[in-house]
Amino acid sequence: MNTTKQLFILFIIMMVSEASAEEISNNTCLIGYKNSNNFPIDSGTSTSLTAGSIEGEVGKQLKIKNEIKITSGNNTITGGEAAFDESGGIIRVTKNLIFENSDALIYGKEAIIRTEEKTALIQEGDYQIFSVPARGVAKTIAIDSNNNFSLTDFTYTTCTALDNSWELRAESMQLNKDEGVAKNLSLRFKDWPILYLPYLTFPLSDSRKSGILTPNFGSSTKRGIELSLPYYWNISPNMDLITTPKYMDKRGFQLSNQFRFMTNKQKGETRLDFLFNDKQLNKDRTYISHEQIINLRPDWRVSLKGEYTSGNNYFEDLTQSLSTTSRTHLVRSINLDHYSDNWFLNFGMDNHQILDDSLLYNERPHRRLPYLNFSGLWTLKNTGINYGLNSQLAYFNKNGALSGGRLHMMPNVSKTFNLNGIQIKPALEIDLTKYNLEKDFNEKTPNLSAKRAVPIYSLDLNALLKKSWSEGIYTQTIEPRIMGVYIPFRNQNDFPVFDTIQPDINHIQLFRKNRYVGQDRIGDTSKLSYGMTTKLFKTDNLKPILSLTLGQTHYYKERKVTLPNELEKNNSSSAYLAMMQWNINREWSLRLGHMWDSDIGKSMKTETRFQYKSDDAKIFNFSYRYRRNMLRQFDTSFSVPIRDSWNIVGRYNYSIIDKKVLEQFIGVEYETCCWGIRAISRKHLAYRNGASDSSFSIQFIFKGLGEIGMPIENLLDRGILGYDGT
């Protein structure tokens, strides 16, 4: 009948949750409303009305009473009474008004629906959104024909019913499919106002929206009390800017800017941090960085990277991350890259800004102005023979040091044979290197046109063996490997050292042909490297129960080639290398790494790590690191629930040789269904001279809304192994 057609408009208007998530949360902290699923869910475009009685004259006014239920598709309205003025197109639903679908629930005192304008007004609405989950109240909820919402005296929280630990309040709020606008917005915690904004806009879709981000605050001994309030500016769909004003009690006012952009062919990021008149140094402090990648063509790319600071101690004074305070130099580079199926070309230049004044002169990097790298690998058709070339042409420069050009070429040829599961790979490489050096008056000038030609012979054998145990319950793999390498001696004492070091021996270095990293030295050798890795699995689980790796290198002659100030190596074999990972059970694991020098009968390096991680989120870590004559450190960390909702976290990292704490922190976490708090007291090594910094950080978590305070979770993820769930 005509009444039914008019009532259908009601449900088109009142699809409140169209902007909500598609799935209902299974969070155990659901608010105490019950979402009824007893009504038909998807009845197409049909609308049904049931009621105890309908009175009145068709075409004028109808009174609908007693257990009213109107259903259209996924939406249901129930109420005690309703009046329909057909002449004015107004429907008024009163008494026990409930609007419900799979995503939302609204209790209201009264609903007024204007069928001609296709609008609805709900008075004194009490709502719940299941997908967050969240709940709140509003004095009025107005919905227009485009499904835009206007709310007055609005509240929002993710806390359970009868729990208002935190609450967002707004005098008014407008919502459309893309964005929301709130006026006189306040965030209250335990009924205490902690944040107020006279005006706020926020996105309701995946599109980005300009606005204020959550503030950060904390304190440290070197910066004092810190407070920052980032602002996000969505300049365009492919461009944005984060501006962060930051106040540091002991330093002053800092303004940080992070600009990002992206197009079809390029992307980049620029950062500019400026501290106005550092209170402790009485001068301005600046940090600038820029990174950019430009795709000229699918196979051609330009990359830029540059950094600058106004002082060597910028990161030590103004940051707290170990990854930044420990930096010794900044890189500035430009590169042009070309990629193909078989070869790669790279042309570039790089320079550096030294941050660590304690670096010895020979430890400081050379500039490369410019350099050209080329590498390629091809296969002879129908032969399986691989041949390739690795090469570099570079000019090295450093003030007060030997400078000049270096041409390095290394053609290679190899072939892999498979014999009954054993791979055999013979290879031949030829190192061709030539220098064109400039005469330097500060030191004894070496051979200005030094050159070498050194063949490198190698034979690599490896296999993968499998065996089942206990009637197929367990599987064991054994991977043996043997590599023989011969490199004849070439005198290189008059060669410069631009970019070459001798790395620590490890399982990767064990099977490298050249014992040096870099191209200024090719170490003479006649050696046989051998090793084995074995793993034990449950057949139905890819994570090994036990993994064990052993390896060593045996030398058949003395090595004569050395770097400056390096002693000749006369030992007949390298140290023994061993590594073990044992997952004892679901909770306990043990990792061991050890290097034993049989020539002196002493340990050279040891790493040990125990971990306990239970299903109820208890974590204990203990590790010990030893390197002969260099370091002895132990590190312990934990995360322990002590009672419902409470958790204690901590770390203690200590250097035995230096008799100094490298990092320590202790903290507490409290978490409920709708909010949480983290507080951390930390002391850590912050300066290269050994000085430490102490800090206190606090972070509030409002679930379904965001976080306020320092990003403590990043510190815990780094400092407590397994805290992030891995």
Brief account:
The protein has 726 residues and is mostly beta strands.
Please characterize this protein's 3D structure.
With 726 residues, this protein is mainly β. The chain has a domain at 2-173: lipopolysaccharide transport protein A fold. The strands form two sheets. The protein has a 26-stranded antiparallel barrel.
In total, how many beta strands? 43
As a percent range, the share of helical residues equals under 10%
How many helices? The count is 4
The profile of the biggest β sheet is: 26 strands, antiparallel, barrel
Q: What is the percentage of strand-forming residues?
A: over 45%
CATH structural class of the domain at 2-173: Mainly Beta
| Quaternary structure of the protein | single chain
**Rough outline:** elongated
**Which stretches are poorly predicted, pLDDT < 50 over at least 5 residues?**
1-28, 30-45
Instruction: Please name the fourth-level CATH homologous superfamily of the domain at 2-173.
Output: Lipopolysaccharide (LPS) transport protein A like domain
Kindly report the average pLDDT value.
85
Q: Within the CATH hierarchy, at the fold level, what is the topology of the domain at 2-173? A: lipopolysaccharide transport protein A fold
* Termini gap: 62 Å
Estimated structural class: mainly beta
At CATH level 2, the architecture of the domain at 2-173 is Sandwich
Task: State Rg.
Answer: 35 Å
